[in-house]
Write a sequence for this structure.
């Protein structure tokens, strides 16, 4: 790319600039990761020297029904959160663009504010929103529509919707902000040309806008996926580190925490933590491939 | 005739959409208004969600919060601010420096470094929280703010972000600086003003993430004095439902203020940075 003179001197300078980051990475990320790998191969002894047990913990996980339950829960949680959050964000981003000029800035700003709440605060709030009889959802949604009131946080059927709503509430604003910027950055001439050629609004959205903003959507997907798979605080405050009734809200990170500190030991806890990676990678490949398949050849 | 009718329909449409979006924004913000008002309410009022306005505007619960009866609020707020700011600045500096090299130069092993950055995105610190906790203990940083802040300065997303950002800087500028004999460090400093919005955007985003961190501070910061705000608030919640909930609401509301202020300050920069980044 660049040609440079004084080869040696400049290289030292470059080394100086790039090294600190990777040094930190080595000390505070790679080392714990390696240690975690070793830990997951050791026995759960609390006192004394742990012994090397190989892949015992991983093999046990494969037969552990609670583990599979947490895998399924986390996947459902991630997929629902992503679908609703990005769907709503697309809607809101268009809504903001079509609103009165003076309102656009404040609206985008206001929607992001829930995302600034620490997840703990948010879980506290939602405990009250989802409260048995008096919660806001029951008062305003279930009762007026003639449904029975639901005890969101102790009814196993409604725990998952509750934590999904919580995550959607939190992230939709940020996603709207990202998508709004992407929508604003679309080249005007392409859209105008399509409008003049009589391409209808849905086709314009599906065939032009979506492919144009798809890198941003992919970014949102990755961000949400990683956050959902690493989600701990929200469900920790809602259920105090347990999985809720019938384990209906048991997520992978919560399960790792339980294994490490409540039952089991550091070895099996580390095994659960590390086993998240293949699931996350699998989901990533899935969400990265779907748009490619859908818009194969859609680009003009 | 036809034309003015079209203008009128589109005006009505704009108004309808504006109102609908406003309503959505109101629904999203409602819980937060309610939380802010909750800092003036008694427990009975709080658990009765039909009450929106407090009976009495009293500073009573703020007084309890600051009195330290339940939690050392000022201390934890100060801890949170200190840890989050140092994490935000540290992560931005580290990622910008490395991102500049990766984004500007082509060299052997470059792809390996990018892949490494991507791996850090895929395996966030929460996932290795447990061994990290053991390791931080071994380093003697247990219960120290450094034990949380230093690991928090590694941001894979930051590396990838800045690698892309520095590709936007015109190569000629860097070549000119080199030709004038500027060192790599000087060159880096001279292009920094060009990417200012990106630095602010990333610094802010990382500040927010640091403020929100839960697992790692919970494991590493053990003593009451070292805790960060989210941890002490969570502990306060867990303590008892009989304790005045308003104290919790007041603490949460005050804890939101630094974040909203910073966001308002960074908003224009954030927007222009994102717009430019997305368009590239």
């Amino acid at each position: 790319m660049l040609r440079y003179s004084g080869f040696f001197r400049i290289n030292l300078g470059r080394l100086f600039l790039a090294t600190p980051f990777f040094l930190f990475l080595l000390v505070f990320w790679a080392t714990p990761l390696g240690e975690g790998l070793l830990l997951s191969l050791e026995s759960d002894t609390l006192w004394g020297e742990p012994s090397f047990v190989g892949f015992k913990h991983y093999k046990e996980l494969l037969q552990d029904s609670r583990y599979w339950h947490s895998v399924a829960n986390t996947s459902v949680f991630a997929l629902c959160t992503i679908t609703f959050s990005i769907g709503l964000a697309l809607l809101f981003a268009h809504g903001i663009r079509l609103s009165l000029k003076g309102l656009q800035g404040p609206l985008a700003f206001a929607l992001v504010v829930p995302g600034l709440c620490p997840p703990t605060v948010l879980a506290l709030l939602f405990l009250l929103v989802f409260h048995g009889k008096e919660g806001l959802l029951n008062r305003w949604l279930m009762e007026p529509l003639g449904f029975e009131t639901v005890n969101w946080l102790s009814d196993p059927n409604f725990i998952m919707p509750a934590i999904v709503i919580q995550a959607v509430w939190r992230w939709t604003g940020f996603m709207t902000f990202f998508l709004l910027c992407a929508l604003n950055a679309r080249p005007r001439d392409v859209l105008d040309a399509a409008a003049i050629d009589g391409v209808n609004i849905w086709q314009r959205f599906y065939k032009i806008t979506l492919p144009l903003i798809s890198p941003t959507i992919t970014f949102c997907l990755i961000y949400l996926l990683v956050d959902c798979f690493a989600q701990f605080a929200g469900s920790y405050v809602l259920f105090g580190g347990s999985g809720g009734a019938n384990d209906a809200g048991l997520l992978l990170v919560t399960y790792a925490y339980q294994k490490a500190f409540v039952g089991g030991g550091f070895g099996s806890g580390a095994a659960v933590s590390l086993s998240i990676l293949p699931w996350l990678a699998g989901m990533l490949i899935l969400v990265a491939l779907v748009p490619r398949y859908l818009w194969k050849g859609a680009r003009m | 005739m036809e034309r003015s009718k079209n203008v009128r329909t589109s005006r009505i449409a704009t108004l309808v959409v504006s109102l609908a979006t406003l309503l959505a924004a109101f629904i999203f913000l409602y819980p937060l208004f309610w939380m802010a008002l909750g800092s003036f309410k008694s427990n009975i009022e709080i658990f009765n969600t039909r009450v929106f306005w407090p009976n009495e505007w009293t500073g009573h619960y703020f007084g309890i919060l600051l009195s330290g009866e339940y939690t050392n609020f000022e201390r934890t707020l100060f801890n949170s601010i200190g840890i989050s700011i140092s994490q935000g600045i540290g992560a931005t500096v580290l990622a910008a420096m490395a991102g500049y090299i990766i984004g500007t130069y082509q060299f052997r092993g470059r792809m390996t470094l990018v892949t490494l950055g991507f791996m850090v995105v895929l395996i966030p610190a929460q996932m290795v929280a447990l061994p990290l906790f053991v390791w931080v203990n071994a380093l003697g940083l247990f219960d120290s703010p450094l034990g949380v802040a230093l690991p928090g300065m590694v941001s894979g997303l930051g590396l990838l972000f800045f690698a892309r950002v520095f590709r936007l800087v015109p190569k000629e500028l860097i070549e000119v600086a080199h030709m004038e004999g500027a060192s790599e460090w000087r060159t880096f400093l001279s292009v920094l003003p060009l990417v200012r919005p990106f630095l602010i955007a990333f610094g802010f985003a990382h500040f927010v993430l640091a403020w929100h961190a839960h697992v790692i501070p919970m494991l590493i910061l053990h003593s009451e004095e070292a805790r960060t705000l989210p941890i002490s608030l969570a502990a306060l919640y867990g303590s008892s439902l009989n304790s005045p909930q308003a104290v919790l609401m007041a603490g949460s509301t005050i804890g939101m203020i630094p974040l909203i202020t910073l966001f308002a300050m960074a908003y224009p920069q954030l927007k222009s940075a994102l717009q430019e980044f997305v368009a590239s």
User: Anything to note?
Assistant: The mean pLDDT of chain A is 82. Residues 22 and 29 of chain A are 10 Å apart (CA to CA). Chain A has one domain: 60-294.
